[in-house]
Amino acid sequence: MKNPFLIGTKIYFRALEPEDAPLLVAWVNDPEVTRTLELFYRPRNLQAEREFIESMNKSEQDVVFAIVVKETDAAIGVAGLHRINFKERHAVFSIFIGEKSEWGKGYGTEATALMVGYAFETLNLNRVSLQVYEYNQRGIRAYEKVGFVREGVLRQEHYYAGRYWDTIAMAILKEEWEAKKRP
Ligand SMILES: CC(C)(COP(=O)(O)OP(=O)(O)OC[C@H]1O[C@@H](n2cnc3c(N)ncnc32)[C@H](O)[C@@H]1OP(=O)(O)O)[C@@H](O)C(=O)NCCC(=O)NCCS
């Protein structure tokens, strides 16, 4: 492992490095990856990704990690907590695995669990939320496995491929996480 910050079973998190920018450019311009992501409907170049990495590093409201496969030390995606609110003790979770060949191997579920554990046990947050498009069944399944609960539906909140889709709001509370961990 290279500079692991948080270690899971099959993956670990490490800091995003400026040298990761070209990888991010490949991922965030890939239509199959961006199909289920909110912010990437415009092209993003190397400069934009370098600035993203630098701005995340400086921000106290965000924590972002590279998701790395232990066995290969290959970075496969990015996971983050955003809009961290230390008064209300909540944050918004984001994730993407940019290496499509690595989808469906359990890495997304494990990265989600690792980040939620970090939010509750290190940052002492109380609530982690996310939004996911109704057609992102893989994402919804991964979040449900970690313990995220559906809180509501934002009807026709998302426009993609010529029509509107619902967005599903999900969240997990610290008490739910702790209850799930108990045998
Ligand atoms: C969403 C994402 C993070 C999930 O990570 P992943 O490593 O691919 O997912 P996992 O392998 O951990 O789990 C996926 C689960 O969904 C299931 N699944 C896969 N395709 C599915 C489908 N079409 N319908 C229902 N379930 C599906 C898998 O079987 C698995 O569940 P299981 O373990 O019970 O069998 C990843 O696919 C990704 O980054 N996609 C592109 C970007 C994105 O959508 N980010 C999230 C935005 S909210």
What does this structure look like?
This protein has 183 residues and is of the alpha+beta class. Helices cover 32% and strands 35% of the residues. The chain has one domain (6-181): Aminopeptidase (3-Layer(aba) Sandwich), CATH 3.40.630.30. The model has no long low-confidence stretch (mean pLDDT 97). Bound molecules: coenzyme A.
Which terms would index this structure?
183 residues, Aminopeptidase, 6 helices, 8 strands, binds coenzyme A
CATH class call? Alpha Beta
Number of domain modules: 1
> Measured on Cα atoms, how large is the radius of gyration?
16 Å
CATH topology: Aminopeptidase
**Any idea what the CATH superfamily is called?**
Gcn5-related N-acetyltransferase (GNAT)
Largest sheet: 8 strands, mixed
Percent range for β-strand residues: 25-35%
Explain the layout of strands and helices.
Blueprint: E1 6-7, E2 11-15, H1 21-28, H2 31-34, H3 46-58, E3 63-69, E4 74-85, E5 90-97, H4 107-121, E6 127-133, H5 137-146, E7 149-160, E8 163-173, H6 174-181
Parallel strand pairs: 5-6
Antiparallel strand pairs: 1-2, 2-3, 3-4, 4-5, 6-8, 7-8
Helix pairs in contact: 1-3, 4-5
Bound molecules: coenzyme A (COA).
Coenzyme A is lined by residues 33, 36-37, 77, 95-97, 103-109, 132, 136-139, 141-142.
Quick recap of the structure?
With 183 residues, this protein is an alpha+beta fold. The protein contains six helices and eight strands, in the order ββαααβββαβαββα.
